Every structure is written in structure tokens, then in C-alpha cells.
Amino acid sequence: MIDTHEEEYNQNVTAMLELLWGKGFMAPGGEGNVKRILEGLDLTEKRVLEIGSGLGGGALLMAKQYGAQVIGLEVEAPLVDRAREYASEAKLDHRVEFRLVDPGPLDIDNDSVDVVYSSGVFIHIADKPSMFRDVLRVLKPGGLLAAYDWLKGPGELSEAMHEWMRLEELTFYLDTLENYSLMLRDAGFKEVKTTDASSWYTTEARREYEQMKGPLYDPITDLVGEEKRDHFLEDWAAMVGVLEAGELRSGYFSARNPLS
Fold first, then answer.
1. What is the pLDDT of residues 34-78, one digit of tens each?
2. Total count of domains within the chain
3. What is the pTM of this model?
4. At what angle do helices 217-244 and 159-168 cross, to 10 degrees?
5. Residue 17: which domain range?
6. Is residue 214 part of a domain?
7. Which of 93, 132, 227, 244 has the fewest CB atoms inside 10 Å of its own CB, making it the most exposed?
């Protein structure tokens, strides 16, 4: 799991992300991007493990619209508490379970889930090869990993990238989509597929930034105050810059546990 116990996603951050991406969502694109990750998948009565379930938006969507049984793992207690509240409000407690866990190996039985899902979380994990091996362990034979993540381009990180990460105030371990593919194959996965989504989110981020300067300016101020509003505007401006430069990237990846 995420390699820190510190609560990095504080109330100001989550309020801002929900304003941009919708109630319960903390990853780019909100509901729409969950559907892109799951495109073509039938999750009816499938057991899905979400790594980094955050405020629960993705898990609740999979339960309600896809008919899945979902276990969401999260390392930050306030996020788990809010996710459980949202599940109760939606009357989905019987289909979704949110667990507070420690960073490290997944506390899940071998060969016990049909799908492992994650969005914008592997970026926070330093030892990705170990995590991918652990994901393979918990998947049933033929089970699928389906995910989206933040990535970097080739080469060393620029000063602009370091400045954006400073503004984010989060712990990042960026890698390339090509290396994700190699790590998944080395872990033992087959049918590894990757899709660069950088163009999509570059456009989205620019749109978000324009909204933050326009119709969302006052709502953001009301939510987090002037100082935090200005911080988020500076953060998004820096992010748009590194996205448009091709240094910050994003992508989808999927891989299957071979049939035994």
C-alpha cells in the first residue's frame, strides 16, 4: 500500500478534489474515468479489490452500476470514515467494505479476488515491483488488474516538475508507462496492455484550471479560504505547465494473472 502513514489528503485537499471531480472522487475524471478504466468489463457479482479507495467514489460506482462486491483498502483513517458514511447514505453497505490498512503487503488471501482496481495510487508506492507481485498473488487465476496512474516522461525530473510536486504536498514515486509494463511482466502477469492518456488529462487539467479561475473561484474560496484557493490555483497552473511540456503524463494499464 501507500508508503506513508501521514494524512496527506487533508480536508482542504479532499474538498477541492470533490468540487472538481464529484462527490467521493479523488482521482482525475471522477466517474467518467472509472468507466474508462473498466471499459468492456463485466463485474456482475465479481469480487473487486480497490487499492487506495479514498473517499469511496469508485467503489460505490462499481457496486451500484456494475453489480460488483468491492473491498476498498485505504491507509488514511479520515478517508475511510467518509467512505463508510457515503456507503451508508447510498445504502450500499452490503456490497462495499472499506478497510483501514497499514502500508505494505496486501492483507488479502491468495487467489481470492477477480479484479484489482486502482486509480492514481501506484504513484504513491515506492516499491512497485513488490506491489505488483502482491497484486498477482491475490488475484484468482485469470483475474485482472485494471488501473490508471500518474506517470513521468523519460529522463530526469526538471525543476518545473519538482516545483509542481512541492506544490502538491504529496509523496510521489513517478515512473514511466514503459517501466510499468516491464514491471508487470517481470511480476508474472500476461496480456499486459498500456494506453497513454496524457493528451486526455492535459486537456482536462487546462479545463479545470479555467474553471477554477472562473465559475469555481468563489465556491473554492468558500470551501478553503483565500490562502488555500491561491495555493490550488498555483498548483494547477504548474501542473498544466508540466503536462503541456510532456513531463507529467498519465496512462491506463491492465494485466492478467495467467490461468494455472
1. 999 999 999 999 999 999 999 999 999 999 999 999 999 999 999
2. 1
3. 0.94
4. 150
5. 11-151+171-205+248-256
6. no
7. 227
